[in-house]
Amino acid sequence: MQRSICSLIAALACVPSMAADVGVSVSVGQPGFYGRIDIGNVPQPVLIYSQPVVIQPVVGVVRAPVYLHVPPGHAKDWGKHCGKYGACGERVYFVQDNWYNQVYVPHYQSQQGKGKGNGKGKDNGKGKGKGHD
Question: Mean pLDDT over residues 85-106, rounded?
Fold first, then answer.
């Protein structure tokens, strides 16, 4: 019995150290994000290459091009990295890092604050919030 309790205590002692392994998550519209971006109504992107890059083209399928913000080495050796972005069969335009950080990020962040609700809270004054039973 004591052996079981000691084993349990030893196992539980390891849990906090594993929980201390915290990752950092960065999402689109933040500096340091790499991946697909939606150009939408953002000013014209500044591109690394003027022509799209295609690895493993899909014959007979035409889709809209994909815009990506990637680390510098990924664009140079796209065949090695396209799978990480799920874009090997896509026509890819790589946006420049300066354009992403100085144009896209501020525009994206300003758009996130617009059109979000009507000032009445999360439930628009119609849900089951406090006093609406």
Answer: 96
